[in-house]
Specification:
There is one protein chain. The chain is α+β, with helices and mostly antiparallel strands. The protein contains five helices and twelve strands. It has one domain. The strands form three sheets. Strands 1-12-3-10-6-5 form a six-stranded antiparallel β-sheet. A four-stranded antiparallel β-sheet has the order 2-11-4-7, covered by helices on one side. The longest helix is centred in the last third of the chain and has 23 residues. It is globular and about 50 Å long.
Length: about 250
């Protein structure tokens, strides 16, 4: 990616935010202090009915965890973004997000009136607040990413959240289409810490370098090459359609 940063900010722990990332830009997320969980949903910014599809993302790349070289797919078989760099090594796509009942039962109820921005907010509520800003709602919540969260399975298939895996690490998402990104920094649903475990995340936006003849994500499997081809057809048709209307 280009070393010139276009924008930078920090989302405090237990908070939420949404923004548009343009095709050809890189979103870098940094877990500076360790222990963060970034719940994320993504939607085609030009057609919000097209959105992230985690089951297809995992299935077509034959993986349980996500990391460098993987692509994130839409429900139309197109690539929203590619993970071009990742020092955490493991990100969760199977456990969903916490709701208010789970948060209250595990860490107690703490409202905005009681604690301001230090309130105990659930990931689901964070998603709903941000989705409402874009005319979306409950029916638009689908399976989400949990970045910086490593979930492992034992021999019986029981899932456990591994602790202390991501301090100082970062992940780079190169966007292959204009995308609405919705994020929260609320706890992972498998987090069993006694104290409220929400942690902040730093996010930075850069300009991506042009796609080269070889690419770690596009060339990692045949399915990803087909996904990029789907993007090419989409953007050609999209541009051609708008051009024909002038």
């Amino acid at each position: 990616m280009n070393n010139e940063m276009l924008y930078e900010d920090v989302i405090p722990g237990g908070c939420h935010w949404s923004f548009r990332v343009g095709r050809g830009q890189v979103l870098r997320l940094v877990d500076e202090h360790g222990g963060t969980n970034v719940g994320m949903l993504m939607y085609n910014a030009e057609q919000l009915l097209e959105r992230i599809n985690i089951p297809d993302t995992l299935k077509c790349q034959h993986t349980f965890r996500l990391g460098a070289g993987h692509c994130i797919y839409t429900d139309m078989g197109r690539v929203l973004c590619s993970i071009t760099e990742d020092t955490a090594g493991w990100h969760d796509g199977v456990c969903g997000t916490c709701d208010s009942q789970l948060v209250e039962s595990r860490w107690g109820r703490k409202t905005y009136q009681q604690a301001g921005n230090a309130m105990h907010r659930s990931g689901r509520d964070g998603f709903l607040i941000e989705l409402a800003k874009h005319g979306l709602g409950r029916r638009d919540i689908v399976a989400n990413l949990n970045l910086f969260s490593k979930v492992v399975a034992d021999a019986e298939g029981n899932l456990t959240l591994a602790e202390g895996c991501s301090a100082g690490s970062h992940i780079d998402l190169r966007f292959e289409m204009d995308t609405l990104v919705v994020m929260h920094t609320c706890p992972h649903p498998l987090n069993l810490c006694a104290e409220w475990p929400a942690r902040p995340v730093r996010y930075q936006i850069y300009q991506a370098m042009p796609l080269s003849d070889t690419d770690i994500c596009r060339d990692s499997c045949d399915e990803n090459q087909r996904g990029f081809l789907n993007n090419m057809h989409y953007h050609h048709g999209h541009c051609h359609h708008h051009g024909g209307g002038r």
